[in-house]
Amino acid sequence: MKLLYRLGWLGFRLMFSVYFRWSVYNPGRVPMNGGVILAGNHASFLDPPLVGAGLTRHVHYMARASLFSNPLAGWLLRHWSAIPVERDGGGAAGLKAILDRLLAGGAILLFPEGTRTRDGNLQKARSGIGLTVVKSDALVIPVRVFGTYVPGDSPWGILKPRRVAVKYGRPLDFKELRTEARACDKPRLKQIYQEIADQIMQAIAELEPMEDAE
Length: 214
Hints:
The protein is an alpha/beta fold. It has one domain (about 5-205): Glycerol-3-phosphate (1)-acyltransferase, CATH 3.40.1130. Helices cover about 40% and strands about 15% of the residues. It contains eight helices and eight strands, in the order H-E-E-H-E-E-H-E-H-E-H-E-H-E-H-H. The protein has helices at about 5-20, 45-55, 70-80, 90-105, 130-135, 155-160, 175-180, 185-205, and strands at about 25, 35-40, 60, 60-65, 85, 105-110, 140-145, 165-170. The strands form two sheets. The protein has a six-stranded mixed beta sheet, with helices on both faces. The chain has a two-stranded parallel ribbon with strand order 4-5. Strand 4, helix 3 and strand 5 (about 85) form a beta-alpha-beta unit. Helix 1 crosses helix 2, helix 5 (about 130-135) crosses helix 8 (about 185-205) and helix 7 runs antiparallel to helix 8.
């Protein structure tokens, strides 16, 4: 971990352990080295630091490209190795940056739903994460956060003390679909992207917080 990232990491761990009384399940399922896609549900702005604070390796986050033009925010995001993406999360430049980080052995947090839930329930996955999985050889780890959703998405409500948890699932194997994607036609390729996204979302849905940690 770089110094500034480590300082932020330590600060968030302290906040989640003392203020939010967090629980962390199975962080050992995430390897310490090699490209990894952490695919998690998204309920509030607490989710990225919660997922990252539960691990002892550097996690690369997505950040809105416009934030990088802010002197302070841009400086911090660059030192945290954040990846700039457009507002909708798409774009060839953003995808290339993600793939480059994965190829270099980084761990990247992605949200299959594409946006935060508005009712606390899991949403249907978008196909974009399927494209990323096919284009990379990275391991895919489903992740689920609990307790971060607050109705209305009020900053004060989100920061209200309560119990939160993060659970890391078992690695998902997409070898067969990745192989098929290299030779299939475009209609089938689009189907594969969505199939992968749906399988990831199903794996997230199956994670329960009260199971014993390994």
